[in-house]
Amino acid sequence: MSCLHKRPKRTKSQDEALQEQLRKVAQENGKRLGLEGDADLQFLLIGGELVKIRSSSWKKNRFYKLQEDCRTLWHESKKTFRRNQTFSIDDIESVRKGRQSEGLKKHTDPSVEEQCFSIIFKGRKKNLDLMAVNAEEANRWVSSLEKVKTTISNLSHQQKSEHWIINCMRKADKNEDNKMTLKELKHFLRQINVEVDDTYAEEIFKKCDKSNSGSLEGAEIKHFYDLLTHREEIDVIYNKYAQTQGQMSLRDLLNFLLNEQREQATAEDASKLIEKYEVDETGRQKKHMTKDGFLMYLHHEEGSILNPAHIPVYQDMSQPLNHYYISSSHNTYLMEDQLKGPSSTEAYIKALTKSCRCVELDCWDGANGEPVIYHGYTITSKVLFRDVIKAIKDYAFKTSDYPVILSLENHCSVEQQKLMAHYLISILGDALVTKPFGDTMPTNFPSPEELKGKILIKGKRLNKLDEGTVSEEDEAADCENGQKAKPKKSKIKLAKQLSDIVIYCKSVHFSGFEHAKDSHGFYEMSSFKESKAFNLAETSATAYIHHNMDKLSRIYPAGSRTNSSNYNPVPMWNVGCQIVALNFQTPSKEMHLNQGRFLTNGTCGYILKPEFQRSLSSQFDPNTLTQGPWMKRKTFYIMVISGQQLPKINKDKHKSIVDPLVRVEIYGVPADNASKETHHIENNGFNPMWNENFQFDIHVPELAMLRFVVEDYDTTSPNDLIGQYCLPLTSVQNGYRHVPLLTKRGDVICSAGLFVHLMLLDAQ
């Protein structure tokens, strides 16, 4: 029985006050979001009571509402030390309707399915499981939250920036009189990560306080905002090209696109940019771009460092599967470390919705005849194999249509293996590949395009594909992930039903490249632990590359990485390994590189390998560079100009301001690896200016990754990460570009960014 009751009635005066408050919010923040007067926004602003569910016995009524900034959800808390709690809409990864989370499935009855929903957060924050009074109310919460979340994420960088600054101003206005005193102005500057001395703060204040009233209001606050957000570096660039009555004509803009941005632009392209980004109607009619329009253009995808042509799926997806790098996860079931961390279906959902296309299932005999997934011989928690397969079925193709590979690490008895096969076939249905494509025995992999919406099983098989069927279970060598193998046993019994659904990814032991070439079919693949793979990449790189032209290779972290740390994936990509499996649950430089590698091509989880890693005539060796089609020497020039609205690292310390520096890193073949960094700027995270130039020599640009790292400089301890961004060097746009910044976990920092000038030119 539900423990909800109807929303409490308010007094007439309370209602009037609330309506007035909502009217102001709708006019200001709602208008900025483009949701002025929107019924769903109003629903969230009024709020309502929901049941928060933590366990079968812990189900409490809590009041939830959207705060006036339209970006923060507030809810009451009964804990004495924190009466109220908030979280940002930006922190929400998704809102799921129904009993989709492990908690709701475990702690609620199926009869309340329609009343339940979950808020899933980015990072490691626990899900928020909730229940509404009825299905209609639940639907309203889900659709309203999704609408506001989508609206905020679709705002331009400039809109997010303005929204953030204005909300900081509102917080600084302690007595809520819509005026700003000198004390409040100083408080505001600290909030936005700028430390200024009292004299400078007073100078700004006097310059804006035209009325000499001792506080800023109305047009004076607008003047202060304009002074604060003025971008001197943009002025310099704009004024250089604005040769027509102080503005950029269509010809001036085209001149900028051709000479500065090095784009193959036409007058029609310039005209489209003016039509799209010019904010002044008169300017649009004259085919002019004002400074505001120019800044708007620079903050959108055309002005971003990432080439917009590389954002959708742009590569040939009809090549054989092994011709692609495949985004891959190791120990996918773990949320934390490998010794005592929790196992969860949520970990699979997070990986799949990040376009991971190969996930690992570590399968063991469970209680009541039900196979489970966990890290064997440890105290990590267990999750039912059946539940994981259901989660994979539901989320495999939410963000990418391209095939998913289930890498089975099988430690089960024959009886439980039969149940595994039953679940795979019955739950996955037509999505599961259970026989080779075509009428004849294949000699090569199908393509990602042919395998759209399909799920492949990687595991042991009792026979070769062309050997017909076997009648019953037999023994198969258990020789893959050595650190997980059963003690003193080298073989396990394999159920025929499970063996029969391993089609294109049969696991076999690696005994050398020549042996693999002579004895193994294209569909027979080996897994290499990192030490073995790195050794082969160093000593037999060309042979490894040729092995990967015909077969798939999977690399996995050493068993000694009990804290779920990661190895550098770049040397593995350099030798053409496709399934370079990383611990997705561990935020790290290695995961930043992985996110950068799979950032382009529709973030579909597949990236076509360079031609020299696919052509049989290739003699490419990343360690000893010789002349060949891979050698396309470039000089990469980069100027780190400025930063915008870098976040505070220590938000608890009121007066904590960052001292930012920027490091520019290149990852690729050993000859291309390099790193250079700027000086640090003291006490300014809002608009630091570096204006520092760097130059890098690049030999194999098709394998090079560019990574930006912004850190808070510290003389006494290691620098703290402020933000980072990584992308393939071949996807970089030349010219003046904005660089978005991501958190350590890979989530976008809404208003933060870098402004740089880049030029990738043929080496002289």
UniProtKB/TrEMBL annotation:
<feature type="domain" description="PI-PLC Y-box">
    <location>
        <begin position="498"/>
        <end position="614"/>
    </location>
</feature>
<keyword id="KW-0443">Lipid metabolism</keyword>
<dbReference type="InterPro" id="IPR001849">
    <property type="entry name" value="PH_domain"/>
</dbReference>
<feature type="binding site">
    <location>
        <position position="657"/>
    </location>
    <ligand>
        <name>Ca(2+) 4</name>
    </ligand>
</feature>
<keyword id="KW-0325">Glycoprotein</keyword>
<dbReference type="InterPro" id="IPR011992">
    <property type="entry name" value="EF-hand-dom_pair"/>
</dbReference>
<keyword id="KW-0597">Phosphoprotein</keyword>
<dbReference type="InterPro" id="IPR015359">
    <property type="entry name" value="PLC_EF-hand-like"/>
</dbReference>
<dbReference type="Pfam" id="PF09279">
    <property type="entry name" value="EF-hand_like"/>
</dbReference>
<feature type="binding site">
    <location>
        <position position="659"/>
    </location>
    <ligand>
        <name>Ca(2+) 4</name>
    </ligand>
</feature>
<dbReference type="InterPro" id="IPR028391">
    <property type="entry name" value="PLC-delta1_cat"/>
</dbReference>
<dbReference type="InterPro" id="IPR000008">
    <property type="entry name" value="C2_dom"/>
</dbReference>
<feature type="binding site">
    <location>
        <position position="713"/>
    </location>
    <ligand>
        <name>Ca(2+) 5</name>
    </ligand>
</feature>
<keyword id="KW-0106">Calcium</keyword>
<feature type="domain" description="PH">
    <location>
        <begin position="43"/>
        <end position="150"/>
    </location>
</feature>
<feature type="domain" description="EF-hand">
    <location>
        <begin position="196"/>
        <end position="231"/>
    </location>
</feature>
<keyword id="KW-0807">Transducer</keyword>
<feature type="binding site">
    <location>
        <begin position="52"/>
        <end position="79"/>
    </location>
    <ligand>
        <name>substrate</name>
    </ligand>
</feature>
<dbReference type="GO" id="GO:0005737">
    <property type="term" value="C:cytoplasm"/>
</dbReference>
<feature type="binding site">
    <location>
        <position position="683"/>
    </location>
    <ligand>
        <name>Ca(2+) 4</name>
    </ligand>
</feature>
<dbReference type="GO" id="GO:0032154">
    <property type="term" value="C:cleavage furrow"/>
</dbReference>
<dbReference type="InterPro" id="IPR001192">
    <property type="entry name" value="PI-PLC_fam"/>
</dbReference>
<feature type="binding site">
    <location>
        <position position="331"/>
    </location>
    <ligand>
        <name>Ca(2+) 3</name>
    </ligand>
</feature>
<dbReference type="GO" id="GO:0005509">
    <property type="term" value="F:calcium ion binding"/>
</dbReference>
<dbReference type="InterPro" id="IPR011993">
    <property type="entry name" value="PH-like_dom_sf"/>
</dbReference>
<keyword id="KW-0472">Membrane</keyword>
<keyword id="KW-0963">Cytoplasm</keyword>
<feature type="domain" description="C2">
    <location>
        <begin position="614"/>
        <end position="743"/>
    </location>
</feature>
<dbReference type="Pfam" id="PF00387">
    <property type="entry name" value="PI-PLC-Y"/>
</dbReference>
<feature type="binding site">
    <location>
        <position position="527"/>
    </location>
    <ligand>
        <name>substrate</name>
    </ligand>
</feature>
<dbReference type="InterPro" id="IPR035892">
    <property type="entry name" value="C2_domain_sf"/>
</dbReference>
<feature type="domain" description="EF-hand">
    <location>
        <begin position="160"/>
        <end position="195"/>
    </location>
</feature>
<feature type="binding site">
    <location>
        <position position="362"/>
    </location>
    <ligand>
        <name>Ca(2+) 3</name>
    </ligand>
</feature>
<keyword id="KW-0378">Hydrolase</keyword>
<feature type="binding site">
    <location>
        <position position="458"/>
    </location>
    <ligand>
        <name>substrate</name>
    </ligand>
</feature>
<feature type="active site">
    <location>
        <position position="330"/>
    </location>
</feature>
<dbReference type="InterPro" id="IPR046975">
    <property type="entry name" value="PLC-delta1_EF"/>
</dbReference>
<dbReference type="GO" id="GO:0004435">
    <property type="term" value="F:phosphatidylinositol-4,5-bisphosphate phospholipase C activity"/>
</dbReference>
<dbReference type="Pfam" id="PF00168">
    <property type="entry name" value="C2"/>
</dbReference>
<feature type="glycosylation site" description="O-linked (GlcNAc) serine">
    <location>
        <position position="211"/>
    </location>
</feature>
<feature type="binding site">
    <location>
        <position position="714"/>
    </location>
    <ligand>
        <name>Ca(2+) 5</name>
    </ligand>
</feature>
<keyword id="KW-0479">Metal-binding</keyword>
